[in-house]
Amino acid sequence: MSVFSDVPQAPPVAVFKLTADFREDSHPQKVNLGVGAYRTDDCQPWVLPVVKKVERLIVEDESLNHEYLPILGLPEFRSASSKVALGDDSDAIKDNRVGGVQALGGTGALRIGAEFLRRWYNGVNNTSTPVYVSAPTWENHNAVFADAGFKDIRPYHYWDAAKRGLDFTGFQDDLEKAPEHSIFVLHACAHNPTGTDPTQEEWKKIAEIMKRRNLFVFFDSAYQGFASGSLDKDAWAIRFFVSEGFELFVAQSFSKNFGLYNERVGNLTVVAQDSENLTRILSQMEKIVRTTWSNPPSQGARIVSKTLNCPELFAEWKANVKTMADRVLLMRDQLKSKLQALGTPGTWDHITQQIGMFSFTGLNPKQVEFMIKEKHVYLMASGRINMCGLTSKNIDYVAQSIHEAVTKIQ
Amino acid sequence: MALLKSNKVIYCLGNISPSLGVLSTRNSSWWGGVQMGPPDPILGVTEAFKRDTNPKKMNLGVGAYRDDQGKPFVLSCVRKAEALIASKQLDKEYLPIGGLGEFSKACAQLALGNDSEVLKSSRSITVQTISGTGSLRIGANFLSRFHGGPHDVYLPKPSWGNHTPIFRDAGMQLKAYRYYEPSTCGFDFKGALEDISKIPEQSVIVLHACAHNPTGVDPKPEQWKEIASIVKKRNLLVFFDMAYQGFASGDIDRDAWAVRYFIEQGHNIVLSQSFAKNMGLYGERVGGFTVVCKDAEEAKRVESQLKILIRPIYSNPPMNGARIAATILNTPDLRSLWLEEVHGMANRIIKMREQLAAGLKKNGSSHNWQHVIDQIGMFCFTGLKPEQVERIIKEYSVYMTKDGRISMAGVSSGNVGYLAEAIHAVTK
């Protein structure tokens, strides 16, 4: 009798299953618009030129070894990462009230932050604090907070399917009605999966309500630089909230903007009221890290740290990031034009209004099924497409497929 | 309102306020109630060492291997593997949740042996993890969620300091069985068997596969056989922690003997492996977690659930270290080079043990220091009492953990004499 006879088969993670199905498909015109990784116009993964350069420097440096990093990670990485998010002239950094926890990707940063909040926020070990995530949101947000122990995870209004944009009224309403001290997970830019971000005026209103209602700000920043092509522009919301005096967390990922997906490079930036609070917070973060992974992997952090801390490499990196952002913008532009030219029913402005890697097309599940089964164009059931999967070679086919889906299937 | 998918039930508290703890007013902080965490006892030793200005200082705290010059040692097989990998110009796409396939396969083979019946029948699953800690944590989380038996985890007394908080944070309860006998600085075999024979059925028992941390005291093969038998009688779930395969005796098969024996005897174990020490890949975080199942079908179900656990912690594991380890294990001449180098590291440790024991004798110590030679692996439980440890740190700048544990890796031919003097001085 096995101790594991009752272990049920778990469903596969949807986004990875999509890629697996895509791989098995032998159709010559198949297109993968699923998982969120950048692709070149030849539909190839792209290792950033600056990353290749820095990796060579690392390999050639005989003084480097593979010793353990400190529990909280590589110090130069942590400080440079927080600086990238908060800005070179950040008063909070000057006041010594900003700290970083190197983590395994954005996921790891979210998880460490969630574990900390469950233990120390709103009382000690208070698992009932409501956690609000946008409707819809990245599908892993829910599990990160649930597995950290939070029992009450709720959606806040975000995507308005009818108008294909932000449901700002509903969003504000949820902020006003949320119990005090609730935690809100906010996408810093390039909302995943909708690509729809609040405007600056809307962010200001959100901040005003959150301050008044004592709500906790937890930013998820996975696309800084990738969204608009400008690091500063994409960090505007974070910096605004910091300037408004919020104590907050920012889960940063360098998977996309550095193309370092599999090296798992992330940073949890903590902005505290003062350095004394920060010291105590970081000491508890250490305890959480120690029982999760002891200390983080060094390779990716070294690459990012070397790049961010060297002016020439930093400039080169920014140019690489702009290359990626620009290609995405071009594809958005072209997809919209082609759909308009085809006379595809509906308006397609949202494709160029949305920002970042993803677009919520507005295709319904039946239309998505048609796209996958009949046209071999793979996208998420939500209608989300990864713009990076579009190339000059496949964009006509994709536009045509969308046209057919919308006209044939209701 | 869009529905959220979850593998847990989400319930809405409506307008009921959550229980309120510390209230944050406009000018106060959320974090007033956060206590200062205590420094990590093991890593804290290194911090104190760094601050010390004594030129003769020795760091015998953390278990990272050092060469005879006291320097970190990057294995040649690692450098060669890195060069090979660099030449391939690989991309950086996400690994699967369970990690690099070539790594997991080789990792399992290393532990279980090439002719393992378990591997032939595909009735195990191995996932790549964030070194040993990550492996233990995934394992602990898995047991917490799926183990139908008591959630009591029995650790040897003493065990690695981090075992307790790992299992606790995963929601398990900690208990202990006798293991180390202070009067002999050896194995309390009788006490261990007595305690194990009383463990409630289906509880979890943690066994150190080889080179027990912190004592360096391992059961002999005959003793392992008896332990296996009584564990079987009690129907306990065996959780092996193998962080030193190859590093203990210098021979990877010899060091995996206990793991393989238990499996042969029909125990469906769970196993944590680390490549931090035996490949010197500390900061790359390379490890594996294995569940030996009843059959291939069960292994698939278990695998699917491990992925569900991993995804909300870090999504998928880091590539670099796993790629290096896989290259070494799967490239014949690199693998042979690795086995030589592991043998070399283990030998240097054994030599230092012999020199330390000899040095203590030469200094005229009246104590029996045989245990220094008998104990195995990176660590030595000297037998020093807390007051003696305090003295040796303060007066001789010899840094060790409070339990008297020293990392033999920090001992070199250049400082073993000083160490013998210092230990003799505080114990005479």
From TrEMBL, chain A:
Q: Where in the cell is it found?
A: Cytoplasm
| Xref: Pfam families | Aminotran_1_2
Domain of life, source organism: Eukaryota
Cited InterPro entries: Aminotransferase_I/II_large, Asp_trans, NHTrfase_class1_PyrdxlP-BS, PyrdxlP-dep_Trfase, PyrdxlP-dep_Trfase_major, PyrdxlP-dep_Trfase_small
Q: What biological-process terms (Gene Ontology) are attached? A: aspartate biosynthetic process
Q: Which GO terms describe its cellular component?
A: cytosol
Cofactor(s) recorded for this entry are:
pyridoxal 5'-phosphate
Kindly give any further remark recorded in the entry: In eukaryotes there are cytoplasmic, mitochondrial and chloroplastic isozymes.
Protein's UniProt name = Aspartate aminotransferase
**What organism is recorded for this protein?**
Acanthochromis polyacanthus
TrEMBL record, chain B:
Q: Which domain of life is it from?
A: Eukaryota
Which cofactors does this gene product need? pyridoxal 5'-phosphate
* EC number in record: 2.6.1.1
Question: What's the source species for this entry?
Answer: Acanthochromis polyacanthus (spiny chromis)
Q: Where in the cell is it found?
A: Mitochondrion matrix
Annotated SUPFAM superfamilies:
PLP-dependent transferases
What's in the misc comment field?
A: In eukaryotes there are cytoplasmic, mitochondrial and chloroplastic isozymes.
Against NCBIfam families, the record matches this protein to:
PRK09257.1 (NF006719)
**Name of the protein in question:** Aspartate aminotransferase
**Family, similarity comment:** Belongs to the class-I pyridoxal-phosphate-dependent aminotransferase family.
**Per the record, GO CC terms?**
mitochondrial matrix
